[in-house]
From TrEMBL:
Residues 10-136 form the Nudix hydrolase domain. Belongs to the Nudix hydrolase family. It holds the Pfam family NUDIX. It comes from Clostridium collagenovorans DSM 3089. Keywords: Hydrolase. This is 8-oxo-dGTP diphosphatase.
Length: 136
């Protein structure tokens, strides 16, 4: 899988949002119920939804974040031989977590640095490297 970042609003026809989350000064990642790996919060932009609305919804659904500031930081493209997609990457600074709603996610955990056990390592490493100043 290849991943590239672009200036905000450079790409069009967004399909996904990715949220890079910070909680108590650390990276906050989620673990899917069916996987042993960690991932960012994010997902499809639903019909009639703006990227910001999708990012806020996905952040709550996949982490339980109820108090946070969130902003778009750049666009991304990810693809391989089977296809590609574009989306907007957001940065969220979370100040309060609540219980996660029933969803596909099992748990959330903070990390000082990206763990080796990532669901989408090729994508996560590129996105976090592009936003590293926000996590210092």
């Amino acid at each position: 899988m290849e991943c590239k970042v672009y200036k905000l609003n450079e790409l069009k026809n967004y399909r996904y949002v990715v949220v890079l989350s910070k909680y108590e000064g650390k990276i906050l990642l989620s673990r899917h119920k069916e996987r042993d790996t960690w991932e960012t919060q994010g997902g499809h932009i639903e019909k009639g939804e703006t990227p910001l609305e999708a990012a806020k919804r996905e952040l709550f659904e996949e982490s339980g974040a109820v108090e946070f500031s969130i902003k778009p930081i750049f666009d991304y493209w990810a693809g391989d031989d089977e296809g590609s997609s574009t989306g907007v990457v957001f940065f969220a600074e979370i100040t309060e977590l609540s219980n996660m709603p029933e969803s596909e996610m099992e748990e959330v955990k903070t990390f000082s640095e990206l763990p080796k056990e990532l669901t989408y390592p090729d994508i996560a490493q590129v996105l976090f490297a592009s936003a590293k100043e926000l996590f210092n």
